[in-house]
Amino acid sequence: MNHQNFHVSDTSNFLFQPSSEILIITNQNGIIINTNTLAESFFNRSPLNGLVAKDILSLKTKKGEIVGCPILKCIQENQTIESLEPLLLVQNNKLVTFKAIPINIDKNNYGCLFIIRDINQTEKIKNLSQEDIQNLPTIFKNAPLGIAIIDIWGNILEVNSAMLTILGSPSAEATKQINILQFKPLQETPLIGLFNKALETKNITSDTAKYFTKWGKLIYVYYQLVPIIQDDEVKQIWLYVNDLTPVYIAQEKETLIKNQIALLHQFSYEFITLDNSYNPFVFIGEKVKKLFPDCTITINKYYPTKNLFITEFLYSPKPSVQELSEKLKQKKALLSYTLPQELWPLNFQGKFIKIPHEDFLTVQFSIKQEEIIKLLLTAQVESIYSMGFINNSILMGNITLFTHKEETNIEILELLINQASLLLQRHLSQKKINENHAFYKSILNTIDDFILVVDVNYKIVFTNQPLLQLLANYNYSTSVLGLEIKEAVPFLNQNIYNYLITCKNTKQSQLFQSTSLINNTLVYYQTNISYLSTDQDDEQFIIAIRDVTKLALKSKEVETLTSINQKIIENLNEGVLIVDTDYKIKVVNQPFCDYFEIEKNKLTDTSVINVFPPKFKDKAIEIINNLKQNPTNLYFEFPFENSKGIKKIFSEELHPIIENNKVIFILVLVKDITEQKNRELTLIDSKEKAELSNRLKSTFIATISHEIRNSLNAIHGFAHLLQKADLSDNKRDQYIKQINASSSTLSRIIDDLIDYTKFETGNLQLIFETVFLYDLLKELYEQYQQELLIRNKQHISLVLENTPDDNLPFETDKLRLKQILSNLLINAIKYTYSGKICFGYKIYNNSIIFYVKDTGTGIKEEHIPQLFKPFVQLSSNYTTEQKGAGLGLTIIKTLTELMGGSIHVESKWQVGSTFSVRFPYRHTFTFENTTTNVEKHCSIARPLTILIAEDDDINYMFIEEMLSEYNFTLIHARNGKEAVELFTEKMEQINLVLMDIQMPIMDGFVATQKIKILKPDIPVIAQTAYAYSTEIEMSKQVGCSDYIIKPIELEVLIQKIEQYAK
């Protein structure tokens, strides 16, 4: 029982009214707080409440001795004080006995229950003389307590009406038939012994006892057995009975209530700790069964979507109902029913409603009505009660109780069901929460992000399955719950604690990117930390980690944009302005002034109307006036253009500050959201670009792989055919021609890739020299005549529209100009299936224009802007003839612009295309162009010793074979270190060094430096696979005399040897 909620006055109103005793209740200070009506009549004073008990209780013994206040003694000693001998109550001069009972709740004293018995009339009767007894009938009959006159043999001679009422006897005659010594129910009670004692000792005996009378009435009584003595012999025994039944019943009710409250507490505790897997309706049923084992009980769950009750628990002490329950179990059937409309209200009363049998038969059960009627009869159902499980107007089910006895106290059950309704809703809500928790947990386990939750001490309390899988993949422990975050996930960014602290202080999410080296692999992560506050005021952080390695490596723009976004978030400032209701500025901060180009020191107490631009003034006045009349928070966005013509977008929040129900200030928060708006557009654009780039590169990789494999397949195939013994010279020449053509194609693909890489890194270098244009074009003409033959397109005419007379000198990068025209010609050959291809140059307005014109498929107008983008081909169908890396036109455009020119396209679909490249033309000098063919034979007469540093044995064999016809001695070094050692050993014999650049152990650069230290004048020719690359420049810096580009041609090699070995 809750002490704070216990009110003795309320309890006494319930307990005292039926009592025939004089009852008084005091608090622990002896002050009267409640009485029954007999008390006020006895003391002839109303009200008694509020009086001090000792002021109205002055008691004396028969000898005149003063007795102390029994109420105060009861409270002080905390024990029952009782007087069985009569005492004189001075205030009204009456004889009384009393009993003072301490009121204890949970071992604490809260006051006293004081019971007074008025025995004044009784004592007078006991002290009557023999002569007075003859005048007794009237007094005897009207005495306020029960009196029975019994002879010494136990026969009842006379009883008064009060005794008949106490016993519940129908008449005096019926009572007189009883002999108390022979009445079996009394033979084992103290009454017989006390009767005999009174006969033997001739003294009064008394006791307080509980009895069931012959007429089935339960009574609690205080009785005295008074011997009537004549001539020193006991003639009769007078039995005086004071009925204490109401007092004791009240005490038993109080005890019952305490037990019921304890039962409710225990029920609540067990329900709260109930496992979610256990059926709560069955749990309630088991508890009700313990309270009412003699009743039939059904606990029914309500399904609102079906408007149906289904029985979850069924118990009965009656065999017929047990048989029905077993039958349903065997059939695996459910007992269900639907309530008629007129019975619906019984679910919402919050108490048990008795249902008449005829109304109960209107319920529509899942079994036949005949069986229901049979059950009611065979089970001897006395009454039917029902009560709903209802909380917050939500019906969850009900309980139906069938009693089999005439009287069944169901008050305690109402308390239990009301308590169960509250707990049931909590249980069902918690079950739903747990189901939702499991649902969302399953979602977290299916997403790709790595999720973990840490507490305020940064220890892990939750991880999703993808994170555990990631840890397992990297051979980290997956037992991470309870571990500190960096201990469990060691590859997280070292600054994560700083971000966690910032998130905790600001309650705002923290987003950042980081890199980690895991098992020698560089991984990019994007991490988002969010603050989480639970209902228990526990602080937690949700950390979501996303692997963005692919995105980071493939798109620098996205990475840069993410970094910018992070900085914007971390450095975001808001403008603050506070104005009063007279439009006067009271507070303004610097960001606000910066936004609107206002001097802060001039704003205090200035009207806000004068601050805004003219077009905003009317709107500002309207908004402020509306806020004064209808205080509410406002948010809107607006554009603004400053004095420099820069356009911004701002968000503005207005919050009225209210005091005493009146707006006194208006708070304005302004935020520059221009970057946010622009960023949204940029992110969309970046995403589209990244997706496009991925698609283009995928197509490019597939295409370039196909092209390289085609060339390698041709080289490998024809090289294998050359091994045939019976091969004719014509066939051999044809195969060699095909091998050379495939090698040329493969070389061109590799050159395109290298050139494109140089464009992106800015490392491309141009070497300008004077070339004669007709010679260059003639060389291209002969080369691509062969290309037409190889492609079986000899029916297409290739026309050079210049003559030898047009052999003008032109200062340019010969190799790159040739590369530009070669790409244009090869494209024309690819896309032309009939007709002709014309090319050449012409002089126009101090410009030289090179052109390639074909009668091919042409280009649709909408596709022309895409021509010069990298990795773009107008068809991605792998089955078409038009193959390539998708870099040719990009390289042409880039080279042309680097050389100071421009490119132009004219095309008509299914008619043909013309590509023209324009350069500024500067006439440098004129001389007669003579071509000196390098002969195969070397002009050096003396023998030479050449040190060849080459790590690839096949390449060395190739060089060795080329030089086998000459008077050369070759020394082979397989790496740079071996080259230095051999040169040191045979320095005097070696005339020239042919040095490969990329070799194991020691590269060609370091080896050349060491050799030059040993002999500075020794000529060293570098071998490189990268024309016009930084390798050429670096080879010169370390002391190389010249370089030769792979694949090596014999004529060029001999020319270099002749030049440097003289």
Could you explain how this protein is built, in words?
The chain has 1062 residues and is α+β, with helices and mostly antiparallel strands. It has 7 domains: 3-118, PAS domain (Beta-Lactamase); 121-244, PAS domain (Beta-Lactamase, 2-Layer Sandwich), CATH 3.30.450.20; 274-431, GAF domain (Beta-Lactamase); 447-554, PAS domain (Beta-Lactamase), CATH 3.30.450; 574-672, PAS domain (Beta-Lactamase); 727-920, Histidine kinase-like ATPase, C-terminal domain (Heat Shock Protein 90), CATH 3.30.565.10; 944-1060, Rossmann fold. The chain is 39% helix and 27% strand. It contains 33 helices and 41 strands. The strands form 8 sheets. It has a 7-stranded antiparallel beta sheet with strand order 2-1-7-6-5-3-4, sandwiched between helices. Strands 16-18-19-13-14-15-17 form a 7-stranded antiparallel beta sheet. A 5-stranded antiparallel beta sheet has the order 9-8-12-11-10, sandwiched between helices. A hairpin with a 2-residue loop joins strand 11 (218-230) and strand 12 (233-243). The termini are far apart.
Summarize the structure.
The protein is of the alpha+beta class and 1062 residues long.
> What is the makeup of the main sheet?
7 strands, antiparallel
CATH superfamily of the largest domain: Histidine kinase-like ATPase, C-terminal domain
CATH fold label of the largest domain? Heat Shock Protein 90
Question: Which descriptor suits the 3D outline?
Answer: elongated
Task: State the strand order across the main sheet.
Answer: 2-1-7-6-5-3-4
How many helical stretches?
A: 33
Q: Could you list the spans in which at least 5 consecutive residues all have pLDDT below 50?
A: 1-18, 564-572, 874-885, 925-936
Structural Rg: 57 Å
CATH class of the largest domain, please?
A: Alpha Beta
Q: How many strands?
A: 41
